[in-house]
Amino acid sequence: IQMAQSPSSLSASVGDRVTITCRASQDISNYLAWFQQKPGKAPKSLIYAASTLQSGVPSRFSGSGSETDFTLTISSLQPEDFATYYCQQYNTYPFTFGPGTKVDIK
Amino acid sequence: QVQLVESGGGVVQPGRSLRLSCVASGFTFGSFAIHWVRQAPGKGLEWVALTSYDGKNKYYGDSVKGRFIISRDNSKNTLYLQMNSLGPEDTAVYYCARGRYYDSGSFYIDYWGQGTLVTVSS
Q1: Are B65 and B83 in contact (CB under 8 A)?
Q2: Can you tell me the distance from the alpha carbon of B51 to that of B71, in angstroms, rounded to the nearest whole number?
């Protein structure tokens, strides 16, 4: 299963609402996770089952979608949110990641 | 707290083998599936392999199938990745990550290790 993300990068300001899209090449139901990665650091898990926040993740993060189309939304961008975001499907082996969306400061 | 610590990375010549380890603590290791995920320098994440909680079920990414072997020793809280016939394309940071059961034999990632760098070069 191929995963696509858009945009590949975006520039935003603190306080902005940011939306990242992930599209699967076939129906993956809601077997979709989102991860955040900062430079030189390990990824951090944000969301699983398309919309369920991992423990400790701020509520400004939200996920939605099903089947092939998914979104990650950050309701009010904070300084610590500037990072690269990846989606991943875990419906079918081999699991696959999207290419990433880099969010940087405008 | 949940901890995953990878080791065994380094510089290896093309065609040679290397074994990575991942030691877990802070949870009941033998109750969880574990993933390997890698990231080439400046590139995105690539899923490599997964083993079920008991080691009986194993799955691999297309680029490593037939060359890499995932295994675990639950008595030692340790996961392994035996990497054979290494090529420059295998140069990456390798992460182990805990898998939580979701449904129908599927597992999502909740915790990640810090990674170990493997460089394949002559």
Answers
A1: no
A2: 7
* Amino acid symbol at A83: A
pLDDT in tens, B36-53: 999 999 999 999 999 999
CB contact under 8 A, A99 and B44: yes
Could you tell me which residues are beta bridge partners of residue A89? A32, A96
Task: Give the integer Cα–Cα distance in Å for B44 and B40.
Answer: 7
Tokens of A47: 């969301």
Residues B19, B24, B28, B31: is their CA dihedral positive or negative?
negative
Render the burial of A9-42: b for 16+ CB within 10 Å, e for the rest.
ebebeeeeebebbbebeeebbbbbbbbbbeeeeb
Tell me chain B's radius of gyration from C-alpha atoms: 14
Query: Which A residues in the span 46-85 are in contact with B, Cβ-Cβ below 8 Å?
Result: 48-49, 54
Residues A16-71 have pLDDT tens digits of 999 999 999 999 999 999 999 999 999 999 999 999 999 999 999 999 999 999 99
Which residues in chain B have Cβ-Cβ distances shorter than 8 Å to A37?
45
CB contact under 8 A, B47 and A97: yes
Check CB contact under 8 Å for B109 and A93.
no
All residues at 6 or more sequence positions from A49 whose CB lies less than 8 Å from its CB, including other chains: A30, A31, A32, A33, B102, B108
